[in-house]
Design a protein that fits this description.
The chain is mainly α. The protein is 53% helix and 6% strand. The protein is elongated and about 70 Å long.
């Protein structure tokens, strides 16, 4: 991630302060109410730490401190001009530049061939059920914000997440169909990495001028999946 991009929790916090000054606990409750904890990992302690860090960096500043009864003091913060600039720069970079966050699922699919077919079928079926539940919950969230009349620009991330879940479900259903029908052979042996290797040249007598032949390069291991792709 480029240096211009702030941490995800800092971006979420600055977005709230763009609306109005808040104290960290109010920010935490607002993030939960809007279900933005599905977008960024947030805990009270980490949020307070992020606010203190941004205050030290001049991105936010304290406006006043209140105390209600026996409750701890609560300091309200507002965004600074520098904080506004860094917020816009971060959102701009995040919108325009794809970043690989190394999600677990693609890695799991890359290594699933090590598991028996029956296990893979059961695991993919379990994932289909779980993703379908999340998709249905997003459908309910979208209906709720529409019923409230909220402008669509305020909940675009719900539509993005819903479409992402739908696309994953469609792919998983196709995978299950291929596995069940045998179209995707789970028992096929891995390709032999030596099959595409060119035959070694027949040794010949050195040319008289070749007094010092070059040392051979060490062999490079071949990935069976690369060989299969090359074929």
């Amino acid at each position: 991630m480029p240096d211009t991009v702030l941490p995800a929790l800092a971006v979420a916090a600055l977005a709230l302060l763009q609306e109005r000054p808040m104290h960290p606990y109010e920010m935490y409750q607002t993030l939960l109410l809007r279900k933005e904890d599905a977008l960024v990992k947030v805990r009270p302690g980490t949020l307070y730490h992020a606010i203190n860090r941004m205050a030290a960096d001049g991105l936010v500043r304290a406006t006043h401190t209140d105390r209600e009864g026996n409750r701890p003091e609560r300091t309200t913060y507002e965004i600074t001009p520098l904080g506004g600039e860094r917020f816009v720069a971060s959102v701009t970079e995040m919108l325009a530049t794809p970043v690989n966050h190394f999600p677990h699922f693609p890695l799991a699919m890359a290594e699933a061939h090590h598991l028996p077919l029956a296990d893979v079928l059961a695991l993919v079926e379990a994932r289909v059920a779980a993703v379908a539940v999340e998709r249905d919950a997003l459908d309910a969230d979208i209906r709720r914000v529409r019923d409230k009349g909220l402008p669509e620009r305020l909940w675009l991330e719900l539509d993005l997440r819903r479409e992402t879940h739908a696309a994953e479900l469609a792919w998983l259903e196709r995978l299950l169909g291929r596995l069940r029908s045998g179209d995707l052979d789970w028992s096929e042996p891995l390709p032999d990495p030596t099959m595409n290797s060119s035959p070694a040249p027949t040794p010949s007598a050195p040319h008289p001028a070749a007094a010092h032949p070059a040392a051979p390069h060490p062999a490079t291991p071949t990935d069976p999946r690369s060989s299969a792709t090359e074929r």
